[in-house]
Design brief:
This protein has 268 residues and is an alpha+beta fold. It contains twelve helices and five strands. The chain has a five-stranded antiparallel β-sheet with strand order 4-3-2-1-5, with no helix packed on it.
């Protein structure tokens, strides 16, 4: 068999394998809650080609469009908490295989987004932001709203910054600031600052990014420590040490237990 024919045959086998792959993900026992209040209990699956849920109970099978779904109630996947602890402890490789499997098995079944958030953090911890971006975008392809909502969005944005994909991120941030809930908008301002900071535009990072969160989103306590810490860095960069010290004092006084307060104390 000549080389060209071998290549064609190999490609053909690969295509057949893809076509033969099931369009319906493995099922998980749980409850699908519809917007009209009905609850469908049984084996829940996501059909990726038809883009709908399939609920199987005994011999009965029901298909539900996601626009009709109010919520999904399924038990937490085995091994998820241990994987999360491994990520928090820095044991990234030990966590990744478990988290990746959960993403596949629980696609559009609630826990895929939790697994994706920690898997992305693990890739970032391994110094592989490109892998984190790819992983998040696989989830976003199935659930487009994930790029603007929740924990996946925050990790995706961070990964885009670290991967140098600022152009793509800027459009997402603009949308989040205009239409997103205030917590997400506060984070979007911080990530906007990160983009300018990486480019060396420290005044823009300060004014259009970090200070906006510090001054305009005071109720979003989760993102205040990072914004204060990075605002102080910018003030240092533009040679305004008194303002930098003011930011650090506020950070240490109001958020003493934050990781950013720890970094401020040791000068990192």
């Amino acid at each position: 068999m000549n080389r060209r024919r071998l290549v064609r045959r190999t490609a053909g086998i690969a295509l057949l394998t893809v076509l033969a792959a099931p369009a319906i993900c493995p099922g998980v026992q749980g409850t699908l809650i519809q917007k009209d209040g009905r609850r469908q209990e049984g084996d829940l699956r996501w059909h990726s080609l038809e883009k709908e849920y399939v609920v199987t109970s005994g011999n009965r099978q029901m298909r539900v469009n996601p626009s009709m779904v109010a919520g999904i109630d399924v038990p937490e996947p085995p091994g998820l908490q241990e994987a999360i602890r491994n990520v928090e402890l820095g044991n990234y490789n030990a966590a990744l295989s478990v988290l990746t499997d959960i993403m596949k098995e629980y696609r559009r079944l609630k826990w895929d987004t939790v697994a994706a958030r920690y898997a992305a953090e693990a890739h970032l911890g391994n110094g592989a932001p490109g892998e984190a971006v790819t992983l998040c975008e696989r989830l976003i392809a199935v659930n487009p709203s994930a790029q603007y909502e929740g924990e996946v969005a925050s990790m995706y944005w961070k990964a885009l910054v670290e991967a140098g994909r600022e152009d793509k991120l800027e459009a997402i941030l603009e949308e989040a600031i205009k239409k997103g809930p205030r917590p997400l908008a506060a984070l979007a301002q911080v990530r906007r600052g990160d983009i300018d900071f990486r480019k060396g535009n420290f005044e823009d990072a300060l004014i259009d990014g970090y200070l906006r969160t510090v001054l305009m989103y005071t109720q979003q306590k989760r993102y205040q420590p990072e914004a204060l810490f990075k605002a102080a860095q910018c003030f240092d960069k533009i040679n305004r040490p008194a303002k930098a010290e003011e930011m650090r004092k506020t950070l240490l006084a109001q958020y003493p237990d934050s990781e950013y307060s720890t970094r401020a104390r040791v000068g990192k």
